[in-house]
Design the sequence.
């Protein structure tokens, strides 16, 4: 393998808990909630899937359903989708819907998985190109910089910057071209079988990790090093997949 592509959320980084997210927004807005009300509100926001990078919505309101499938194609659609979900939950101050959305983009809202730095650093030492290919509606580069991982990433291919979202193979093709890598010599690492699996259409290998809280997945990325070190080059165009 000459290059590895990584998804962002649920693969290299995990977003904070919904309760922590809400607490941070309340503090920023100067709004206080009792512990019982705070817990109930956090639970309602989680059930709605209002925290990008968290769990999927339990249902989609009509105004959100119309943009949900294309939310990662632009910053405007992404904000509309997630603030639309949060607005299904009664909050003590209407400003909180935008404050919550803005908070989820802050580097402090994200934590790298325990082995992210080790794996990315080892790939750099081996001379393997690294790209991040993400369905996202905002610039994630500051998250990588804040957590010290940006020096290990050669290229970022973000859906909202291209108007294309995974599993469309065009997004993976942009990343391979930026790394000057033959897709057959590239592995895509992600947590979403449909979205990240789209790389197989180019002939990339695909390796899936579990989307778990960071503390529950201490070494889920390390098998990627074995794939890069031992996987032989294949001349056929069929996908190679791993779990």
Sequence:
């Amino acid at each position: 393998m000459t290059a590895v592509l990584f998804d962002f959320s649920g693969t290299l980084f995990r977003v904070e808990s919904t309760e922590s997210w809400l607490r941070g927004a309340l503090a920023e807005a100067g709004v206080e909630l009792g512990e019982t009300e705070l817990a109930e509100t956090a639970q309602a926001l989680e059930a709605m899937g209002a925290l990008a990078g968290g769990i999927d919505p339990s249902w989609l309101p009509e105004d959100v359903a119309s943009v949900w499938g294309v939310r990662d194609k632009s910053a405007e659609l992404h904000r509309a989708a997630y603030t639309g979900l949060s607005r299904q939950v009664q909050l003590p101050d209407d400003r909180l819907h935008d404050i919550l959305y803005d908070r989820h983009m802050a580097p402090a809202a994200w934590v790298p998985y325990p082995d992210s730095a080790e794996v990315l650093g080892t790939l750099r030492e081996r001379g393997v190109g690294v790209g991040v290919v993400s369905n996202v509606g905002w610039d994630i580069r500051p998250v990588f910089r804040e957590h010290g991982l940006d020096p290990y990433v050669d290229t970022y291919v973000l859906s909202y910057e291209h108007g294309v979202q995974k599993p469309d193979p065009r997004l993976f093709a942009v990343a391979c071209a930026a790394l000057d890598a033959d897709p057959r010599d590239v592995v895509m690492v992600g947590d979403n079988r449909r979205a990240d699996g789209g790389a197989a259409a180019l002939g990339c290998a695909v390796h899936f990790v579990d989307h778990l809280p960071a503390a529950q997945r201490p070494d889920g990325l390390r098998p990627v090093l074995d794939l890069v070190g031992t996987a032989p080059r294949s001349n056929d165009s069929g996908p190679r997949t791993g779990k």
Summary: The CA atoms of residues 16 and 35 lie 18 Å apart.
